[in-house]
Amino acid sequence: MVNIVLIGKQGSGKGTQAKLLAKQFDLEHINTGALFRKHIEEQTHLGIIADEYIKKGELVPDKFVFQLIEESIEPDIKGLVFDGFPRTLEQAAYLVERYRIDKVIYLSLPIEVAKKRITSRVECKNCGKTYNLLTSPPLMEGVCDVCGSVVGSRADDKPEAIEKRISEFLEKTKILIDFFSKRDIAITVDASASVEEVFSELCEIVKELF
Ligand SMILES: [Zn+2]
User: Fold this and answer.
1) CATH classification for the domain delimited by 2-27+77-109+167-205, as one of 3.40.50.300, 3.40.190.10, 3.40.1010.20, 3.20.20.70
2) Which of 17, 29, 74, 150 has its CA 20 to 30 A from that of 99?
3) Is residue 180 predicted with pLDDT exceeding 80?
């Protein structure tokens, strides 16, 4: 088993890179947010519990998050790539105790680049179709290709909200990176390069672990 953790702020391409790595090295992609959404959709026992917390605007308690992870791991898998987990020291401690973690990769991104990437994301106010102004803009500026409604930034992508999310993220992440650095398994990769360039750098790192 080769188990890796990807840490990166919004806009760092963490989710994309996790998916690519999972495919390349036959690893299981563990994204707790997506896994909970799937459980909620399927109305499983765990999904029903998680939904209650989420509806109240609360975090799902760790014991259910841990249960979710344990239930999600398929037998015969070559390894795991954790995406969006851990977020706290308690979760990090659980992770290193329960699974042998080979590498924690921090996708670092200058704040200005992160902001630019996030603000380039827009969506249709009517049908919800998402666009990226840099890579996949609507055909006509500000107008949805699908339904013709107004396209604009998401409510949680307003500059003040982004600033707040980034500073909260950096504060929490520093604690995690320190924790993994003490175990000599943390490495930082510059995520401001293109998806392809970052991916090839990650591949070099992960290849060494097998
Ligand atoms: Zn639309």
Assistant:
1) 3.40.50.300
2) 17
3) yes
